[in-house]
Amino acid sequence: MTEIQDRLLGKLTPAQGRREWRPYLYLLPAFVMIAVFMAYPLVDTFILSFQEVVTLGGEARWVGLDNYVAVVTDPLFWVAAKNTLIFSIGMIIVPLVLGLGLAMMINRGIKGQSFLRSLIFVPVVVPIVVSGIVFSWLLSPDGLVNWALVTIGIIQEPARFLNSVTLSLPSVMLMVAWKRTGYYMVILLAGLQGLPSDVYEAAKIMGKSRWAMFRHITLPLLKPAILITVVLGIIDTVRAFAHVYVMTGGGPSNSSEILSTHFYKVAFSYFNFGKGAAYGFILFGLSLVLSIIVIKLSGGTEI
Amino acid sequence: MSVADRISGLFDPDREGVAWERGLRYVGVVLAALFVLVPLYWMVATSLKGSSQIGVFPPALVPSPATIEPYLSAWQTGPWGQWFLNTMLISGGSTVVALAISTPAAYALARFDFPGSNPVYLLFLGLLMIPAQILLIPLYNLLASLGLVDTRVGLILVYSTFFLAFSVFLLHSFMTNLPESLEEAARIGGIPEWKIFIKVILPLVKSGMVATGMLIFVFTWNEFLFALTFLQSEQLYTISVGLQSFQGIHGATVYNQLFAMSTLATLPVVILFALFSDQFIEGIAGLEME
Lengths: 303, 290
Prior knowledge:
Strand content of chain A: under 5%
Shape of chain B: globular
Shape of chain A: globular
CATH class of the largest domain in chain B: Mainly Alpha
Structural class of chain A: mainly alpha
Number of domains of chain A: 1
Number of domains of chain B: 2
Largest sheet of chain A: 2 strands, antiparallel
Number of helices of chain A: 13
Radius of gyration of chain B: 24 Å
GO cellular component, one term (chain B): plasma membrane
CATH topology of chain A: MetI-like fold
Order of helices and strands of chain B: HHHHHHHHHHHHHHH
Strand order of the largest sheet of chain A: 1-2
CATH architecture of chain A: Orthogonal Bundle
Largest sheet of chain B: none
Subcellular location (chain B): Cell membrane
Protein name (chain B): ABC transporter permease
Order of helices and strands of chain A: HHEEHHHHHHHHHHH
Largest interface: A-B, 120 and 110 residues
CATH class of chain A: Mainly Alpha
CATH architecture of the largest domain in chain B: Orthogonal Bundle
Oligomer: heterodimer
CATH topology of the largest domain in chain B: MetI-like fold
Main location (chain B): membrane
Keywords (chain B): Cell membrane, Membrane, Transmembrane, Transmembrane helix, Transport
């Protein structure tokens, strides 16, 4: 992260290497792949976003900014945007807070920490479709969660989590938190492990409270690690798809529709490719701008 | 020294901390472990229940009697063997292609000072930030014009490109940590550059390639959106697409079978992770910490 910041801010030049033509050769295959399967499609999307596809795979008509206007004047876009904002709490904030808490607990030396760390990481490798299916079943009216809640007496009747306008999105977020906490924990744990112990020793001698140490030492020093999780979280939030698609399909009545699933419907269910392309570019711009802001902010305020 | 060892040896303002605090820490971690385990347990438990134990409320916490019948009947309702094979071929192929292309690229970035190295580094960073699905439409058109829609090769090319940047970053961090003395010695010894890359660098970075390759394998094994969009004939589905179609067609009636296949789909990646968890975790952490 520090290196990324430095490179972004232009502080870092590549270290004592050798000047020659070979590196270009080593990079060539990567560039060819990227040019064909990323750059070209990216340009293609950009062009497509100003066109209306008249016949599939053929004729297109220039329509200027119409597609972009169509996206931002689509009320569903704003519903999805609002949901994405809420969804990012489950995608970023909850796993970040839980992950940080767990990382600190494990970091302070507890028995079997290596095993626990691995165990909490396991959901990261579970296929997203499987996670979605399992949580749908856990949250179904005759599922385990309802059984537990009814037995303890928190609710009287089994709730229809995934068919409820208010509960569908939080249900997906619960699964996401399950899946991501271990991921963030590992990143933050590696960050904690790099913190200098003498600073803490000094603070302890000065009689600083535990909270003061956390607030004034741990958090600032951990900032690069926290920020990279936020950047990854932003990118993944914009990418998230199967999470919603498998559990709720965006329903009921769009209550769990997020930008990426709505985008998919515009492009591939309604076959509105031009509008889909414009939608895609708005998504890309959003994640790029947010990520760069976060990285710049982190580099701008040196500790 | 593993990450865990290094962690436990570091600062510990709590070592003389009071017992109830330590107790609280255990409670927190144990709760987290339960939160992780319950869904996984429930998946496996449901997969071992006979049809008569499904859709019963309250649900039985332990399958009794446990039966592998759901596995057997599910296996016959779809071309699961074919789907597993497809996923294996696609993930394996993508991993090999991505590694083959990203290793030299990472080497160039980590070990050479050349005009444009900074922009190239930032380009790879930018690639990481492209939300994959915005390229779905043009990629679909591109694959169609190449005759690669609904083929495993098409998906392998797309996956390996999309995991390229990720792989370059990971390998880059492995390579910058390597000592340069061996390379220098080889250069002074007059060994040709291409031989240095193959004979000196590759063996040194092998463990990094294994870690990176496994992460790519797991991520492609689990990928859903591209597979859903680019694969159309049932014969070519990956496990994830197959599971999703199975869920769609059969609904709640055969949940035990759905979970039998979900368990099978999860098993390979969890086994891989169990075998190499340290490399996985250091890989993920290393990407961010470089």
